[in-house]
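Deviation from plan, reported transparently: flavin-adenine dinucleotide complex.
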Amino acid sequence: MRAVEVSRQEYRRLSEEHDPTLFQETGGLRIVSTEEGEHRLGPQRERLGSQKVDARLLTPREAGALLPKARLDGVRAALYTPHDAVVAPTDLTLLYGRLARENGATVESDLGDPRATWNGGRWTLHVGELEASSERLVVACGAWTKGVLQGLGHPLPLAPYLTRACLVKAGHPKVFPWVHDSELDVYLRPFPGGDVLAGDGTELKEVDPDHLDPSSDLPFLENVAGFMERRFPAWASSSVGASWHGICTSTPDRRPMVGPVPEAPGLFVLAGFNGFGVMRAGAVARWMADALARGRWGDLREVDPGRFPRPYAPFEPRPGFTLEP
Ligand SMILES: Cc1cc2nc3c(=O)[nH]c(=O)nc-3n(C[C@H](O)[C@H](O)[C@H](O)COP(=O)(O)OP(=O)(O)OC[C@H]3O[C@@H](n4cnc5c(N)ncnc54)[C@H](O)[C@@H]3O)c2cc1C
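Because the crystal trials were delayed, the predicted structure below was used instead.
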């Protein structure tokens, strides 16, 4: 939760300084339509409150007032977090790259897969014409981290899995809270330019990111269409501007892996965000950079990559936060 908050503040600052569309404080609404769902909201509010996150239980009428286009029939309750925000992740990533360059870093992309070798107490990376050498190497390749570490002879228990999102041309210029419908299992958020972004379609099985054979996007889009008809009928006939799948990475205990790779001198990993990496990346990357500079891992020890007993057993990917039951 601290990583989320520190990242939130950093993204807001970057947005204020560089581009107002990078970060929007929209608030967030989790809506539930079953008794069991309603029972979950109280403990969730307490957990968030214990971390000093402003979280309020709302009646369906109060929730409806925040989502004027929504039809909330059957909804029993909602949990409102007024300071939640949404970001434009691609633009944010490009901004980090630009700022890194301006501060003296060398940033290269689209060079193909680098080859890494450990020799004489140093890592050397070869890619195309380039060669770089360092005492330390950080593998932060998202879904490809598992394969890269395996290739280096230092596997870790990671499971890449597939998830989906789409942009709906809603033509809705106003900001509204992101909303997650627990029972229909779809989330929706405003997107700059009047679109709305809808997501889920997560497939809870491990995939190989180099040999993807994803099932069609159609069931996902049908599910989103059903959700729109049920909850946002004003947008039900809007066209889909884009739809895509991407790969996230799960760990056995749903906590990231950030730190030294066990028994691998000079090798570090930053991966395994279980589908929630954007909201923690700013803080975690900074903490890791500080730890590498000072050699003190502090609170990051909680996500030490060496915490898993060997041999590593296969496991089912499970997105989410360990804050949830
Ligand atoms: C549809 C969808 C919706 C999502 N929604 C949210 C959300 O609402 N909130 C949230 O917090 N998170 C969300 N996520 C998850 C989030 O995108 C990830 O957790 C996050 O991007 C992980 O960051 P990362 O830097 O570890 O990996 P990535 O962002 O995957 O970056 C890894 C990079 O490494 C590069 N790479 C791969 N192999 C190599 C190699 N051999 N050498 C060099 N580079 C390599 C890749 O090209 C890539 O650019 C979503 C993901 C998807 C797909």
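The pocket of flavin-adenine dinucleotide is lined by residues 113-114, 140-144, 148, 163-165, 199, 246, 248, 271, 273, 275-279, 281 (CB under 6 Å). We consider this an acceptable substitute for the interim report.
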